[in-house]
Each structure stands twice: as C-alpha cells, then as structure tokens.
Specification:
Elements: E1 18-21, E2 28-31, H1 34-44, H2 51-64, H3 70-83, E3 88-90
Antiparallel strand pairs: 1-2, 1-3
C-alpha cells in the first residue's frame, strides 16, 4: 500500500465528531481528530485488548501515516467502542 504522506492528525476538518460516553473521571470524551482518537484509545480506553480495539489502534496509526482516510479510523473507533460497550453519539455541527 503506497504511503500518501503523514497526515496532520490534529486537523478536524476531515473528521466527523463523536462523543464517547465512558465511565470514570472523564465521563464524556469528544473526539474530533485523529489525535483525539489516539488519545482516547491509548489513555482513556477501559481495556487494552480485544480484536476491534487492536484493529482501531492499527487503523489510527495507518490514518496518521496517511495510508488510509480518517473516516476509516473513525469507523474502527466505533467498532472498538461497541466491543467495549462504550456508547457513541454522533455530534452534529
């Protein structure tokens, strides 16, 4: 797969926002960019295993590297959230 180039992973224009409803100190987490996907998966996720979780981490890295579109990482995050029973709310802006 050819590399497109490192993505500006802080950029939110190409990413439809999501709200993760997590338990713990930060009950709601707004995810608006690849950076926030990575932060949620690495720093706030309730577990570090699961098929969809591992796929979401890999997909996020691939998106940051520019190998795939951010919307694919977003979809992987949603699947990982479903696996972890984390409610997801699509944010309309």
């Amino acid at each position: 797969m050819p590399t497109v180039g490192l993505t500006d992973w802080h950029r939110s224009e190409d990413f439809a926002p999501l709200m993760l409803v997590m338990s713990g100190q930060e009950e709601r987490r707004l995810v608006r960019s690849l950076r926030e996907v990575a932060d949620a998966l690495i720093n706030a996720w309730p577990t570090d295993d699961g098929v969809e979780y591992i796929a979401a981490v890999k997909t996020c890295v691939d998106a940051i590297l520019g190998n795939i579109q951010p919307k694919i990482a977003r979809a992987a995050l949603i699947r990982a959230a479903q696996e972890a029973e984390i409610p997801v709310i699509a944010v309309v802006h």
